[in-house]
Amino acid sequence: MQYIHFKIALRNLRRHQVFSLINVLGLAIGISASLLIFLITQHELSYDQLPDKDRVYRVVLDLKFNGEAGHSAGVPAPLSQTIPVEVTGVELTVPIMHFQGDATAKVTIHPGSTGQAKILKKQAGIIFTNQQYFSLLPYQWLAGSPATALQQPFRVVLTQSRAQQYFPTLNLADIIGKTLRYNSDFTATVAGIVQDLPQNTTLDAVEFISFPTIAETHLQENFMMNVWNDWMAYSQVYVKLAPNNPAAPVAKQLNALLNKYHPNANRQPGNALRFALQPLPDVHFNQDYAGFNQRVAQKFILYGLLAVAAFLLTLACINFINLTTANSAQRAKEIGIRKTMGSSRQQLITQFLTETLVLTSLAGLLSFGLAPVLLQLFADFLPPGLQSGALWQPGVFLFLAGLTLLVSFLAGWYPALVLSGYEPVKVLKAQATVTGAQTRQVWIRQTLTVSQFVIAQVFVVATLLVGKQLNYAVHTELGFTKEGVLTFNLPRNNGINHRQQMLNEINALPTVEVASTGFLAPIEEGPAFTQITYAPKPELKDPVQIRWGDPNYLQVYQIKLRAGRNVRASDSITEFLINETYARRLGFKNPEAAIGQSLIFNDKKLPIVGVVQDFHAESMHRPITPVVLGNNNGDIFHVRLKPNLPGTDNWQQAIAGMQQIYQRIYPGEDFDYRFVDDAVASFYQTEQRTAKLLNWATGLSLLISCLGLLGLAMYTIQARTKEIGIRKVLGASVNSITALLSRDFLKLVLLANLLAWPVAWYGLHHWLQNFTYRIAIGWEVFALAGAATLLVTLLTVSFQAIKAAVANPVNALRNE
């Protein structure tokens, strides 16, 4: 019997090819979106699924600066050495230290007596850690001793992939004993090789240098290994608790350590520090504790993606229902004949559900075939490591099979009930489309269409408003000039500093407006705080963001002075500029009153010589905070280029000139630069990806909704064919009939807009709360979205309406 159902289903697909194609495409859009989002969600949720993950925690800091809450994955460096001695209930303590700067290193590979040394620059994934790291994670050892590999200083363990990169011609056992030179700091001997972890984890280092190496090098000072009142993002600590040991008592002991070694940490009500234990499964998803160079997946985005998939699937099912019921007149006589020949309603329901299953299966196969293309198309949105090979996992096939059955049932059940309920006598008299039952079903189709456009309208409004907020965040006035300004670093650990020579030569380039050396740019993704005390009031000891540079720093960024003067040139910080926010924090209502006052920095009393206008030191998500600018040279260059006028290539010439100078002074080093406006734009990568995904979701939802609207238009016009014929015979014009038929659909879409706007406002209002500086939600966004949707509706319906209006009325009235 089932064979007959499938045979008839395939026959009907061939007979109504255009109708079937539209249905398959509509369903394929929803299934493709769901499959892609399933792959993303499955990949993100697979992170850190390690043995005993419930006992593994990262030690983090919760902070309060001037009453503002903050969080840090970086902790004071001595903590990892103190926990094993003074804290109970901890089974493993694992320190993780990254190289400073950009967390990469230049590695010189010495293969031994044969072969020539080679240099690999900017090698990532290198950390300093101890032997317990390999007990925390399930590594398989391929060479070397697990017990002693990292006990001694100047030892390194490599993963198999990194070992093969460094020594491609050697067997793993022969790599043991080879040496690697890191920057110009030290040389380490390969003491072990481990297999790459097969699972996804945030602990993704591939090169492990023994922790005792730090104490034997200048890194002891660089990493502040004996400093409790300061910390860096490069320093992290993981712990594994002993069995049956809760986290709360351990966290209490950690905070006792903080108060013991940093007694001033919590003496001020508005400024406080507290250690906390972050569960390992939370590390990949918690933006508050984003570690250095760590990619964080935000759960609310995953939930949003799942909602988008659900909406698109719902739209596809509604579209299928509308198209199928709209096409019911073409099946009416078939149903009447089959019922007359003895078919039961249950058999007809099975037949129609089988047809739906066939269509949905074709859509599922099409979606699976398109998946590799979609993975390439949306590569910018996908998490690293998600490749097309993920499609061949058993879970993907189970998901696709389950989704196909679910969609078949949701999309096919209502049309099956409607079609199987036709009365044979009426349908054989060609009255199926005018029965009272059919008339009473119209409101259901109208409700489904309104639901479609509610979803589509929410997407349209969200797309417009998110784009408007992003445009505001990227292009609003930041308090300094960012256009045409680039930064680059001098090589680290080169032993020779040619800063002044390079500065003079760059300033002499005709395409350069002005250049400066110093510390970070005014706005940076990672804030740089320091402890500053206001000398007349020692209780005002605040964590303050710090920048420094030579006297040209203000000129490069065109930061305006509100009072006082600019800093003077110096090789160390001897005086400060402060921003207006810090001046108010110190109690000065007038910026001039702050001039001549003193701040204590590194136990030195330094004068305030000027007050600069407020500028954004972080993204629009954060408020403007107190900032000090010191007078000191640095190894970061800040260069403002002359305007790149149309038809000129000033910027290309300037960059080429700087690169030539850089590589002449530092041969063999890479000239890596970055425009400040690109850095600003990078703050909003999550929002930019969200905006692009919304664009796609909006386009697809409108497409599916318009297909559904087309189905309802087809049904309505079929039902009113004789009415249209009579109106034409009585003298109605094409325009009046077109307007009559379009008016009802425009009313439905207008109703959908009115229902969608409160929902869109509520969701977007909450999303905008993530930005301290944000746009207002104006009525014009809703008006524009509504007008766009109404226009799309009119274009969709008018084709069918005009087609019906110009038809020969004789054909419509022939059966009367």
Q: Can you give keywords for this protein?
A:
816 residues, alpha+beta, 5 domains, 13-stranded mixed beta sheet, 26 helices, 48% helix, cell membrane, ABC transporter permease, Macrolide_Exporter_MacB, membrane, ABC3_permease_C
Structure description:
It comes from Adhaeribacter swui. This is ABC transporter permease. Residues 20-256, 448-617 form the MacB-like periplasmic core domain. The chain crosses the membrane at residues 21-40, 300-321, 348-375, 395-419, 448-467, 693-717, 745-764, 776-797. With 816 residues, this protein is an alpha+beta fold. The protein contains 26 helices and 24 strands. β16 and β17 (537-549) form a beta hairpin. α2 (17-45) packs across α13, α16 crosses α24 (734-768) and α22 (685-719) runs parallel beside α25 (779-805). The chain is globular.
Topology:
Layout: H1 2-15, H2 17-45, E1 56-65, E2 68-72, H3 79-86, E3 90-98, E4 105-110, E5 118-123, E6 126-129, H4 133-136, E7 141-144, E8 155-159, H5 160-166, H6 172-175, E9 179-182, E10 186-194, E11 207-210, H7 212-215, H8 219-222, E12 235-241, H9 247-261, E13 272-279, H10 280-283, H11 299-326, H12 328-340, H13 345-377, H14 394-420, H15 424-428, H16 436-475, E14 485-489, H17 499-507, E15 512-518, E16 529-534, E17 537-549, H18 553-557, E18 561-564, E19 576-579, H19 580-585, E20 598-601, E21 604-612, E22 627-631, E23 636-641, H20 650-665, E24 673-675, H21 676-682, H22 685-719, H23 721-729, H24 734-768, H25 779-805, H26 809-813
Parallel strand pairs: 6-11, 8-10, 17-22, 19-21
Antiparallel strand pairs: 1-2, 1-12, 1-13, 3-6, 3-12, 4-5, 4-9, 7-10, 8-11, 9-10, 14-23, 14-24, 15-23, 16-17, 16-20, 18-21, 19-22, 20-21
Helix pairs in contact: 1-13, 2-11, 2-13, 2-14, 11-14, 11-16, 11-22, 13-14, 16-22, 16-24, 16-25, 22-25, 24-25
Domain ABC3 transporter permease C-terminal: 307-424, 699-808
Domain MacB-like periplasmic core: 20-256, 448-617
GO molecular function: transmembrane transporter activity
